[in-house]
Amino acid sequence: MKGYWGRPEATAETIVDGWLRTGDLATVDEDGYYFIVDRKKDLVIRGGYNVYPREIEEVLHEHPAVAEAAVIGIPHPTLGEDVAAVVALHPGNEATADELREFVRARVAPYKYPRDVWILDALPKGATGKILKREIPRALPEDTRP
Fold this sequence. Notes:
Layout lengths: L7 H7 E2 L2 E2 L3 E5 L5 E6 L4 E3 L2 E3 L1 H10 L3 E11 L3 E10 L7 H9 L10 E5 L15 H4 L7
């Protein structure tokens, strides 16, 4: 990639010293294999602890009623951010926000589980079908928006 068309600032942020910075976060194991764990801009920092939304989304997908899941950070007055989840259920399935919260809580570290869980008919998606996390707050009922 040579850069973003007509966007020199975005190019300068993305290409540094000839390297393309994708924003992917990865770990490396003892054999030198890399594993993508999430995207830097999706990372939730809750009280100084890193929470990778993808990890929580994978746990939510283990629940038989969950068709789609997205985890986002929402503002918190003392922790900086808190973990929140938005899910859509498979047609004909039922689950409550409390049930889904406890399902995740039983499977992850105490600081990682979503304190807020919203259930929607469908999550906002772009033309390619990818969930648009930036659109999630607008998709929530107005009286519950973060």
